[in-house]
Queue: 4 jobs
Job 1
Amino acid sequence: MRKVVTLAAFAALALGQVGALQAADLSVAVGQTGDSTMTYRLGTQFDFKQSWFVSDVGRLSGYWDAAYTYWDGDKASSNHSLSLSPVFVYEFAGERFKPYIEAGIGIAAFSSTELEDNDLGSSFQFEDRIGFGVRFAGQEVGLRALHYSNAGLKQPNDGVESYSLHYRMSF
């Protein structure tokens, strides 16, 4: 029951931050872990609304990403997670198509500490990400690798990676 209350509180905080914004983007992602667990992710993003190191080559910017992920395992029951991450993006210059690379570290809360053969050790996890893709006409398509681990705060700390294809649409 404590895990459900923690997840609900985390979701309320994340959604409260998103609701305070004027406009948010939506994203969907489908991925897989090394243990054949399928991941289905639904998220909302809101830009930092600031750019740094602007040049003819590109610019550095970023966004907040709040997401729900459903983990559909083969061997064990499914799992759910909520996450919130600041993500930094380097967007290369372009007229119609703008390639980008991204990286970020945030937090996540899992409904269970078991995921296939992995024992996460705790429901609290850090979410590390790296990805790349292309932006065009208010949309984005890319590939992303996400790693979840509790950074050794509690043992065991097996961690898990998910590799996904994502699509994002701006409103």
Note: The first strand starts at residue 25 and ends at 33.
Job 2
Amino acid sequence: MSTSARDAVRGRAPGLVLDRTFSAVLFDMDGTLISSIGSVVRSWTRLAQEFAIPAERFGDFHGTPARALLDHLMHDRTASERARAVERVEELEVADLDDIAILPGASRALHAVDAPGRSAIVTSCTRRLAQARLVATGLPVPRVVVTVDDVTRGKPDPEPFRLGADRLGVRPEDCLVVEDATAGVQAGEAAGAATLALTTTAADGRIEADLVVRDLSAVRLLLVPDGVRVELC
């Protein structure tokens, strides 16, 4: 990597990403590998209308599982009503796949680490929704996919990334987490992983991690004999 490229790096500790070899890479899905923002906005707008959720309750909850988000948004409703809302928003999102798109660099990154035990997808989606979106894009899918259905506590808790690493047979401390949401970065850090954040979703690029780039086209993942390395493009 050239001196000028390194000078252009933003992040708290870029060397934690650029100067080591990782056992595996744990990718978030929405906002990291694919863009589903149109579907998300339409589905959640309709849900808010159907369940009369006040607009002012919404904030930056990207990367948070739907159930946890609805527990917050509908804290004054019954458990059964919140459960109906969870089912309804999944139904809306699964049916709305028209403008799901692959983000820059995502396909190349997944192909680059297409080797046993070197990558996983760790998403806050349900398995049904994750499968629908991945099929819609045609992206190569790693053998290990962790969804919110697999864990007790979703992001920003570290459980999803710890489980992803465990299913790959590696330590989370030896992994790189790739995320676009603050909740996801926090989960990766809490798991002990190094973090690479993308500014694909965060307003004004306001997200912090060990290394921050615009999207996966800004880096190159290299499969080496003992793992995966990261270079700036």
Note: The mean pLDDT is 91.
Job 3
Amino acid sequence: MRFILHILLTVLLTLATQIGGIVYLLTIIILHKIKVKKRIYRFLTFIFLYLSVTFLVVPNIAPYFGRVKITNNIYVQNHSLITTLCNRNYVKPKLNASLQNIGNHFKQRYPTLTLVYLDANFPFIDKFPLLPHLSHSDGKKIDLSFLYTEAGKFTNKKPTTSGYGIFEEPKSSEYNQTNRCKQKGFWQYDYSKFVTFGSFNADLKFSLKPTKYLIQLILQQKSTQKVFIEPHLKYRMNLNNAKIRFHGCKAVRHDDHIHFQIW
């Protein structure tokens, strides 16, 4: 049973963070050699090694795999520390440069707002799955948060811990892609409502103008290949650009975030 538990933890940590499984196995080997048995010491050893590798080792090795850690500053910020702790904040250098350019121009128009990103990619190995996403596996994809207002004023707050799961639903006059996909049997299409990891800021309202401007800045980038948002939001924001695509019913709905990818 202990062996099975170690295998399960290794697999889960690898799927969640890419490097967690390796660090876990390394911890077991070290603790076995120095004969540490108290669980609290074993746990603290793992945490120390994991944080050391995440913040000191991985950023220096990732460039050899063609990826860099996203540069956080006053223009570009991650929504949650979990993104960083789970190594989900790595992209191709070209995508990092585009994010900085977009964030800089966005800040000029909306000085109180910041470009906030959600999940990007793991630091190593193309085609390594970044669950639960289907395509975040080559360093070229990233999810960006919508913009919101609170009590009529712009805010950088988001409605959930994960940044996902609170949808800007279609109006009665707009096409409902979610219903269409679920009618076709794609039950998972709105399952991201179960991965909010806590919802809050109930008074937040979707802000159309800055969100539209952010998408327009993305579309202006020469490196941009595709942008995914729900059809009803494309219609509502009057966005007509061939780079804005429908992601397909096999994915999940995109009226809680913007999916942005480069060539």
Note: DSSP finds eight helices and eleven strands in the chain.
Job 4
Amino acid sequence: MTVVPELQDIHIQPQSERTLRLLSYNIQVGIGGSRLRDYVTKSWKHILPHAQTYENLDQIAHLASAYDVVALQEVDAGSLRSSFINQTEYLAHKALFPYWKHQLNRNLGHIAKHSNGLLSRFKPEEITHLKLPGVIPGRQAMVVRYGSVENPLILVIMHLALGQRARQRQISSVCDIIGHYEHVILMGDLNCQPDSREMNYLLKQTQLCEPTHDLKTFPSWRPKKRIDHILVTPSLKVNDVHVLDYPYSDHLPIAMNIQIPENVDIF
């Protein structure tokens, strides 16, 4: 039997006024992993449903319930492997989020529906979908606006390609959208490390700040790579950032608490 961790064991900082608690998690469709050979021995779970998926999703929902905004990558929008259940919606209901949105990136019909997801305790005023370039189509960024058009908080959720050239083009597309905004949060599995050429380009073309360099998230059973990130612009004060030892995917989740300026109305 799997014991659900108590919330106090998940290193959650208490929320204060105008604090936004952020979580980014590549959940690998609810497929857990504890060693490299699982990619082979458990590969059938990417096609067929299995009971462990929903035990893992319930654990993920338990974690997500302690946050205000959750960015999800590698969620399924309702296919055979997820028992035709939209996993973003499932997590929203389980974790009692009033607002949620999935972004269908690659639709393989009954086999798989690769998606990004948003869970939010605050109402987004606008959500747009930005198609990202790549040799293999099916990557998008979700661009979320909170607050007024005049002084918004912009949230970007994305899962970038495995190839460096494709990531460079995808980041360039995102920079064109967010480069002029003052208050920006970018969350997701960027598949590149802090010292990469793509990350350096992103930081130079926007006001986003350099990520913390020692937050290793992949693979979850022996983290060596720093490829999951939460980046913010200088107007958003970071109170805390850390990786959570919550191995219900092949990635570990990354969390951040930020302070929202008084003139940004999202609460």
Note: The radius of gyration is 17 Å.
